[in-house]
Specification:
homodimer; mainly beta; Porin
Chain lengths: ~270, ~270
C-alpha cells in the first residue's frame, strides 16, 4: 500500500520538465496546503530531473501565495549540472498563478565525506510517552495534524492551553502517521510542520511564510525525528524561525530557517 | 565622489530586465570575486525592477561557479508583485555561463510595523580600538581586505596566527573603508565578507558557498556594524555558517545562513 506521504508526492510527467500534481486536502492547515508537503512535492519533481543527484542538499523556497486542494503543476528547469552537485529551479503553479518559487541544489548524501564534527548538542526532550499529542481533539484539528504523530515537550505546549511559555521555542517528536520512514523529502516536510513558533509567544493565527531555506545534511535513520523550532527576532511584523531535526541515531540531519509574518492576533 | 561600493554596483540597463555590470578585481578573494558584493550587485538590479519595494527582505542565492574580474550581466525577472512585497529572480552570467542564481523578496522596511521584540542579546566584543585588523600585512592581503575596516575580536582571530580557538566563531567590527554608511545592500555584502568561520576550527583555504540566504530586518543606522559568524555542524564535507549583523543603534539588522564546502586543507 502506498503511504499517504508518497501518494501526496505522486507526479505525472509531461514534456519539458513539467509535472502534474494533485494537492490533497489532507495536508491543509491554516490558510492553505502545508508549505512543507508542497516543498517536498517540488523537491520530488526536481529529483527526477537530476537522476544522478538524488538528494536535496539545500532548498530555498519563496512563497508567493496560498495553495488549495486540487490540481497543480510543477515546472522545473535545470540551471546547472556539475559532477557532484546540480542546481535547478521550480515553480508551483495553480489556477494560472505562481504559488511557490524554488531554487535547489542537489547531490548524493551517500557520497559525502563521512567525518561528522557537529558541535551543537542534541536538545533535551522527554521521551515520547511523556509528551503530549497536538491531536487533543482530532475532530476539531486541522487536517494536517492527522498526517503526523506529533508529540510535544510538555514544557513547550502551554500555548495550546492558552498559556504560552514565552520562550519562543517548540520541541516535539515527529513521524509520519502512515508509518513511512523518514528520508530527505520527509525532512523537507518536517521543517515546516510544527505550529508557528510565535504561538509560544502568545500569538495565534496564520503566519504566512515568505521564504524558507532547508539544508539536508544526512539521510535520516528510521524512526522518530526530534524537532526543535525557535525564534529570536520578532520585529517589524516579521520573525525568523529556525528549525533543527535530529534523527533516531542522534545525528543532526536537517537545519532550516524561514522568514514569516507575525499573526495579527495576540 | 562615488564610493567604491557604489561604483561596484554601477549597472547599465539593457532591455528586458538585463543589466551590464563590470566586476572589479578590488573585490577578489580566494577563488573569485567575493560572493557578498556579487549578491549586492544582483540585489541592486532587482531593486530597479521593483521600484515601489526598495528593500530586500530575504534573498536566497545559489552559487554555481566562481566569477572573475571583468564584464558580467545580471538577468532579472519579476515573478510576482503584490501590494506590499514583490518577488524576483536574477541570474549573474559571465562568459556565457550562469554563475549565481537568486530568488529575492522585496518590500519597504520603513513601512513595517515598528514593534521590535528581539529576544537574543547582542554579542559581546571589545571596542574597536582593542580589536585587531585583518589587514596585518596589506601588501600580502587579498584585494577584498582593502575594501573594509575589519577589526577582529582578539579572542576570535587566533586562526590568523596559526592558533585557531576551536570554537567555530568569528566576531568583528565591520565598515566600508570608503566611509559610505551601511544600507540593506551593504548588509548583503557584510554577511559574506568575514573569513570562512571554519578557519577558527583550523581549516584554511577556499570554502566555496553552495547557498546563502540573508534576511534584512531593518535599515541600519550609520557607523560600525558588529558581525558574528559561527558554525555548529561541520559534517560530510559541508558546514553551515550563520551570521548576524547588529548596527550602531543595537538593532539586529540582518541574519544569514549559508551552506559551504569545508576546505580540504587543515
Amino acid at each position: 500500500m502506498t503511504s499517504e506521504f508518497d501518494a501526496a508526492l505522486a507526479l505525472t510527467p509531461r514534456e519539458g520538465g513539467v509535472y502534474d500534481a494533485v494537492l490533497d486536502h489532507g495536508w491543509h492547515i491554516g490558510g492553505g496546503i502545508n508549505g512543507g508537503i508542497l516543498l517536498a512535492t517540488m523537491a520530488e519533481a526536481i529529483r527526477r530531473e537530476l537522476p544522478t543527484k538524488p538528494d536535496p542538499l539545500v532548498v530555498s523556497a519563496h512563497y508567493l501565495g496560498p495553495s488549495s486542494a486540487g490540481p497543480a503543476e510543477v515546472r522545473t528547469r535545470v540551471v546547472r549540472e556539475g559532477g557532484t552537485v546540480g542546481t535547478a529551479e521550480a515553480t508551483l503553479v495553480q489556477d494560472g498563478a505562481d504559488k511557490i518559487a524554488v531554487l535547489a541544489t542537489y547531490g548524493d548524501l551517500e557520497r559525502l565525506d563521512g567525518e561528522v564534527r557537529t558541535s551543537v548538542e542534541p536538545f533535551e526532550i522527554p521521551p515520547p510517552e511523556e509528551c503530549f499529542s497536538a491531536d487533543l481533539n482530532p475532530a476539531a484539528s486541522p487536517p494536517l495534524m492527522g498526517r503526523f504523530d506529533m508529540l510535544f515537550d510538555p514544557a513547550s505546549v502551554g500555548w495550546a492551553l492558552g498559556q504560552p511559555s514565552g520562550s519562543g521555542e517548540i520541541r516535539a517528536w515527529l513521524r509520519l502517521k502512515d508509518g513511512r520512514d523518514p528520508d530527505p523529502l520527509v525532512l523537507l516536510t518536517m521543517v515546516d510542520s510544527l505550529p508557528p513558533v510565535v504561538f509560544d509567544l502568545g500569538y495565534t493565527g496564520w503566519a504566512p511564510t515568505l521564504e524558507l531555506t532547508a539544508h539536508v545534511r544526512a539521510r535520516p535513520a528510521p524512526g522518530w525525528l526530534k524537532v526543535r523550532a525557535w525564534t529570536t527576532n520578532v520585529a517589524g511584523g516579521l520573525f525568523e524561525e529556525d528549525c533543527e531535526v535530529w534523527d533516531s541515531s542522534g545525528r543532526l540531519v536537517a537545519q532550516s530557517r524561514q522568514l514569516a509574518m507575525v499573526p495579527r492576533r495576540r
